[in-house]
Amino acid sequence: MTAFETMQKYYRERCLAAREWKRNGGRVVAYFGNEVPEELILAAELFPLRITGNPLSGGELADRYMEYYFDVQVRSMYNEILKGVYDFADMIIVPHSSD
Predict the structure, then answer these.
(1) Are strands 47-50 and 28-31 parallel, antiparallel or unpaired?
(2) Can you name the residues that pair with 47 across neighbouring β-strands?
(3) 3-state SS track over 41-78
(4) What CA–CA distance (Å, rounded) separates 39 from 87?
(5) Which residue of 17, 24, 61, 81 lies most exposed, with the fewest beta carbons within 10 A?
(6) What are 24-76's pLDDT values in tens digits?
(7) How far, in Å, CA of 22 to CA of 36, rounded?
(8) By C-alpha distance, which of 98, 87, 90, 14 is closest to 50?
(9) Of 50, 91, 52, 97, nearest in space to 72 by CA
(10) What is the pLDDT of residue 45?
(11) Measured in Å, how far apart are the chain's first and last C-alpha atoms?
């Protein structure tokens, strides 16, 4: 596999590296947004995994708990959590934001 093919693989399967880390005994911290200091997670020898949503996958689960005025990307991220996409994470950090 070429370097470019490897990059494409990990891009398509965004949780793959975190799942491999977990499978090898590491701990994974999933987090929202850019307010979380990833450096602190790395310093604790944990794997930082930024939560991404998929606006095309719908938001049926998140819509049960969130108001409609929330940004579609935020609702999508919560929907992915509720669907179990990040069920392997040891922790999930949701920072307080005024947005």
Answers:
(1) parallel
(2) 28
(3) HHHCCCEEEECCCCHHHCCCCHHHCCCCCCCHHHHHHH
(4) 23
(5) 24
(6) 999 999 998 888 999 999 999 999 999 988 877 777 898 888 888 888 888 88
(7) 20
(8) 14
(9) 52
(10) 97
(11) 42
Residue with tokens 């929330």: 70
CB 73 within 8 A of CB 96: no
Tokens for 49? Answer: 């995994």
pTM: 0.84
Helix (H) or strand (E) holding 11: helix 3-12
Residue 50 structure tokens: 């930024």
Rounded distance, CA 25 to CA 29, Å? 13
